[in-house]
Write a structure and sequence with these properties.
It contains five helices and six strands; from the N terminus they run βββαβααβαβα. The protein has helices at 45-61, 78-90, 94-113, 152-178, 189-200; strands at 14-18, 21-24, 29-35, 67-74, 117-127, 184-186. Strands 1, 2, 3, 4, 5 and 6 form a six-stranded antiparallel sheet that branches.
Amino acid sequence: MAASTKSAQDFVPIKEVRNGVIILKDGSMRIILMASSLNLALKSSDEQMAITLQFQSFLNSLDFSIQIFIQSRRYDIRPYIALLEDREHNQLNDLLKIQTREYINFIKSFTEATNIMTKNFFIVVPYTPSGIGSPQGGIGGFLPGAKGKRSSAQKLEDFETHHSQLKQRSYVVQQGLNRTGVRVVQLGTEEDIELFYRMFNPGELEKPIQLS
């Protein structure tokens, strides 16, 4: 029996990304939030306790699950080196040119000996529309092979309704984290695609995600 072949896309659970919303193949939806870091070690003991209690209160207030994950990537130092080399080339002062070259050599040797990592913090907010798995095809055409016949207008209306529910959940998460001092922003469609592209293509050059 010949082994069945599947493309890499068959293993990706995402059906599409629309208006910053990730629609999975099972019809459920996700919004991804990017969060800032918070260094508790720089806070006083009272501040640490207040932040911890506020975060505990935030988690206890949720009536839905969320996923928190940290992405660690090796930082690509080459754009910075290229910038320094450009400044060295345009430098008219010989002493400053020599110092710039020495600094470039130091940065290169330091980064070769030490892995400089960058970390991104994400929160995944889920929403599963009611009716998924029903004979009518769940949320009206989002599921592959859905048998229910619905017009494009009805499908758009379904999406907007479920999107509104998901946005409400996202707002609750953002407000809760803001109270702890963590800044949160939702990823847009392009940022979502870029994030998942890097996750499924770890060999690509890694740079920080640029929010529009």
